[in-house]
Amino acid sequence: MNGKFQSLNSSFFLEKAVVILLYAALFTPLAVTSVFYFPFIFSKTIFFRTIVELAFFFYILLIFAKPEYRPRLSKVAIAAAVYLGVVSLSSFKQRLRP
After folding, report:
1. Residue-by-residue DSSP string for 16-39
2. List of residues 6+ apart from 77 with CB closer than 8 A
3. Which residues cross the membrane (predicted)?
């Protein structure tokens, strides 16, 4: 196999993995396990967080494999980044206060 075909094959896998995982996150209300003390809350939380973290991981890999999936800088994206930065900074500053 040459490198170009392998790169296309891996980016196809990454695209499908992200889409399938995001669709799987829609089935979170059906995830119930009676093993835990709060089965209707804890199992859904763990299921959803795991699915979203896996989708995010594959999306980061997809960004490196195919640059067209990188987010574009727009006014909305910049405003969201500034808001996230301000909220993070205020949260960090609040923790430093005794």
Report:
1. HHHHHHHHHHTTGGG---TTSSSH
2. 71
3. 20-40, 46-64
Class of residue 97 by CB neighbours under 10 A (exposed 0-12, middle 13-18, buried 19+): exposed
Closest listed residue to residue 81, CA positions, set 89, 54, 3, 17: 89
Question: Which pair of structure tokens corresponds to residue 11?
Answer: 């980016």
Work out the pLDDT band at 9, boundaries 50, 70, 90.
confident
Closest alpha carbon to 11 in 52, 61, 70: 61
Residue 35 — very low, low, confident or very high, per pLDDT cuts 50/70/90? confident
Q: State both tokens at 27.
A: 């089935």
